[in-house]
């Protein structure tokens, strides 16, 4: 047996516990990130290891091909849907934080869509949006509004609204639970004091609730922005990018695996990362300035 001092044992334990996380981080985070950056300067096809250094040619191509950046118009639908989702989630969080009978059951029901797999959700909403036997059109006909029936996935003017609603429905529960956790951390004494002073429910919400959960609102805005820019699973599984539903991420995936231009796709991924970081900085500087 080795007779190490307490200080040596402490360092050995710390080294042992830190080694595995660091190795995993280097293997699955930093190495792929550095490789991605390197591939973005090559003409790699994604097959084999033959590649040639092309410098900034991939980035030049990205910024000279309008069709690559026009897909951000599709991402805008998800951003607007995310803002609506955040507002609705906060509304329901306020209601379900109050003294409501069966609130835990309502929380579970509203959170359930988030735990469902995206493939299952797409299959379900295909049966909702189907033009002939879809439940949405059948419902509109049943209530006497047949003129409102639409080709929800076939109409290019409606398809992105339809897909953004699916995303709103899926992630609404997560936003609501985060807000509930934030609201429960607010001391009840503040509301009691406001009630004694004669403050209405709206004034209590405006001057107590909103300032108290401001960091959480900032977090939700960042998640909404990044989620909109990185939208992929639902539009790709539902439409495969058809009918004007391609997002920037789905365009990147197509570039890498369909057109075998992994180098260009890597550059697109790097550009997306920079765009996300840029918007986060702008958002924090303009909307959530310190001391504002």
From TrEMBL:
UniProt-listed CDD domains: TM_PBP2 (cd06261)
Keyword Cell membrane in annotation: yes
InterPro entries noted in UniProt: ABC_transporter_permease, MetI-like, MetI-like_sf
Membrane topology qualifier: Multi-pass membrane protein
Protein's cellular compartments: Cell membrane
Gene Ontology CC terms, in alphabetical order: plasma membrane
Short name of any one Pfam family annotated for the protein: BPD_transp_1
UniProtKB keywords: Cell membrane, Membrane, Transmembrane, Transmembrane helix, Transport
All residue ranges annotated as the ABC transmembrane type-1 domain in the record: 71-283
Transmembrane feature ranges: 12-31, 76-96, 108-129, 161-183, 216-242, 262-282
GO biological process terms held by the UniProt record: transmembrane transport
Record-stated family: Belongs to the binding-protein-dependent transport system permease family.
Protein name: Sugar ABC transporter permease
């Amino acid at each position: 047996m080795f007779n190490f001092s307490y200080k040596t044992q402490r360092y050995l334990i710390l080294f042992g516990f830190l080694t595995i996380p660091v190795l995993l981080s280097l293997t699955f985070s930093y190495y792929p990130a550095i490789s991605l950056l390197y591939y973005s300067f090559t003409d790699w096809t994604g097959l084999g290891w033959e590649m040639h250094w092309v410098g900034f040619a991939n980035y030049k191509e990205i910024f000279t091909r309008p069709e690559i950046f026009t897909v951000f118009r599709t991402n805008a639908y998800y951003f607007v849907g995310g803002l609506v989702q955040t507002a609705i989630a906060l509304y329901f969080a306020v209601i379900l934080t109050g003294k409501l009978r069966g609130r835990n059951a309502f929380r579970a029901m509203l959170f359930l869509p988030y735990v469902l797999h995206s493939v299952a959700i797409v299959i379900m909403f295909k049966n909702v949006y189907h033009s002939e036997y879809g439940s949405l059109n059948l419902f509109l006909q049943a209530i006497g509004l047949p003129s409102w029936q639409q080709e929800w996935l076939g109409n290019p003017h409606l398809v992105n609204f339809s897909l953004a609603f699916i995303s709103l429905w899926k992630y609404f529960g997560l936003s609501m639970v985060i807000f509930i956790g934030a609201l429960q951390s607010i001391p009840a004494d503040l509301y009691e004091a406001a009630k004694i002073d004669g403050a209405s429910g709206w004034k209590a919400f405006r001057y107590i609730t909103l300032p108290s959960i401001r960091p959480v609102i900032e977090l939700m805005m960042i998640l909404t922005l990044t989620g909109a820019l990185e939208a992929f699973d639902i539009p790709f599984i539902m439409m495969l990018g058809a009918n004007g539903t391609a997002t920037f991420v789905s365009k990147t995936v197509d570039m890498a695996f369909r057109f075998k231009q992994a180098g260009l796709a890597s550059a697109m991924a790097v550009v997306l990362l920079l765009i996300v970081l840029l918007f986060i900085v702008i958002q924090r500087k303009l909307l959530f300035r310190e001391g504002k």
